[in-house]
Structure formats: C-alpha cells, structure tokens
Amino acid sequence: MRLGTETISRRLVTGAQYVAQLTARESDRHARAAFRGLVLRIAQPGATLFDFGCSPGMDARFYAERGFQVQAYNVDPEQCDEFASECRDLIAARRVTLERGTYEDFLARDRSNRGVDLVTANLSRLDLIEDLHELFAAFHELTAPGGRVLASVLSPYFLGDLGHRWWRRKLPALTRSGRLAEPAEHAPDYRRRPADFTAQSVPYFDLENVFPGIEGRRVREVEGLRVGSGTRGAWLRLSTCRFMFLLFTRRNTSVSRQRGASSVTSRNPACARADAARR
Q1: 234 CB-contact burial (10 Å; exposed 0-12 / middle 13-18 / buried 19+)
Q2: Which domain range does residue 30 map to?
Q3: Burial of residue 50, with CB atoms counted within 10 A of its CB: 0-12 exposed, 13-18 middle, 19 or more buried
Q4: What are the pLDDT digits (tens) for 53-98?
Q5: What does the pLDDT read at residue 96?
Q6: φ/ψ (deg, to 5) at 84
Q7: What's the pTM value of the predicted model, to 2 decimals?
Q8: Is the model more confident about 6 or about 128?
Q9: What are phi and psi for residue 179, nearest 5 degrees?
C-alpha cells in the first residue's frame, strides 16, 4: 500500500512555516549541511541531480550554485510556488527545472532517457511513503547507467527515541518486519532498518552504503558503513543520530513499467536468480 497524495499534501507545511521547521533545531541544520557535503563528495562536477521532494528550493539553489544541473520535483503547490520564487534566476538560466504534480502523476510519467546521475531526497521524504518499490522503479527510469540515489531518512536506532512510549511499544515490529510506524497527525512516518530499504529497492538498486547523519557540532567527513561488510558493531554509530544517509547504486537491469506495475529482466543471470530467491 502506498501513502496517497492527499495524505502527503495534508501533512506538509509550507512557506515560511516550513523553512522555520527546517532550521529550528541546530542538529537538523548540521544534518542538512552534512547531507549537502556528502552530495558534493559523491557527485562528479557538472553532474545532473534530481531533487525529489525539493521543498522551497534551498538545496536546489545550493547545488546549482556549485555547478550542478538540477531537476526538482514536489507534490505541494505552495512549496512549488516558493521554489519558483527562490530559484527564479536559476530557472531562467535553465540551470534548474521544477516539476509539479501529484505523487501518482510522478510515478506514471515516462522518465526514460533522463540521464540523471544522482537522485537526492533530503530530510526524510522517503519516510512518508509506505511502499517504496514503485518509487525506486521511477528512480531507475530517471537515472543513467551507474546512477545513484542518496536519501536522508530517520534512523530507527536513534537512542533519543528511547523515552517515547510508542517506540518501545513498536520495537517488536521493528525487529520482526524491519520497520516501525511513528504516530503522526494524519498518517504514520515509517522508520526502516537498512535491510527493509534493501528489500524495497530490489531489483532496481542495491543499497551500497549507510552514513550516520552528523548531529551537534561534529561537522566533519565520515565514512559510511558498507552494507554486507560484516562489521555488525559499527551499526551502533547510527544510534547517536536522528538521521541516516543511504546511498543506493543503480542495477544494470532492463525495466518496463505499465500502469503502476513493473517487470524487470536482469542482464546478469546471477542477479536474476538472487532476486527469485528473495521472493
């Protein structure tokens, strides 16, 4: 089941109120700076970025002013208007483009041959969506061979949540299913273990690396926790941060989608057998 567009729109705040929420916590400001810094480390100079859930355009302007070509999408009309105002000069210069519309429209559009090098999803955009499979299918169509997705999501391991009754109550679900649903006003926020992201991104992407979202005053470069490296104790590093940054790498697959359904043919027989075993 996918979180509907109407629900997503109701949960979004817009304009100055949204910007105030983004900048209220010092830890969130540092996490945003850390995410941007990671984008600069990952993306090649002059790369094409796709800013999914682009908010009022702060990140898009940051990337464009550093030489990237930026495509952006948002579901909320008011935030899109803010974006158009914030990035007016960059849009006129064709360094930034903005795509509007419902989430269902976003999934249904033909996105082949877009040639995006890196999709970015900052500040928990993926946490609003229960079923990510179709979204990763759309990202696969967007991206060029070797393309990547970098997403900032809420960490299910954050020790700061230990004091919340809902977290303790839902911990068995996290252990059992790999995700938990945090209560919210209109619909839950989903917090997932990396294994759940791995399962939902298959067969379009592989989860390559998990980075702790830097908080407080510890603003520095960090190394990611390479998935499958066997360093189980290293996951404790994720417990001190509200956010974790997930880096996915595009699989070498041939994809066809029709009316929300998807079919995938892997060009690597070993990958095809592994995918069948997961099912």
Answers
A1: middle
A2: 5-278
A3: buried
A4: 998 899 999 999 999 999 999 999 998 999 999 999 999 999 999 9
A5: 98
A6: -60, -35
A7: 0.80
A8: 128
A9: -150, 160
Distance CA 105, CA 110 (A): 10
Which CATH number goes with the domain that contains 253? 3.40.50.150
Beta bridge partners of 263: 256
Quote the distance between the C-alpha of residue 199 and its chain's center. Answer: 15
CA atoms 195, 237, 128, 49: torsion sign: negative
Cα angle 183, 188, 194 (rounded to 5 degrees) comes to 110
Domains held by the chain: number: 1
Enter the tokens of residue 19: 């910007």
CB crowding 220-230: b at 16 or more within 10 Å, else e = eebebbebeee
Q: Is residue 217 very low, low, confident or very high in pLDDT (cuts 50, 70, 90)?
A: very low
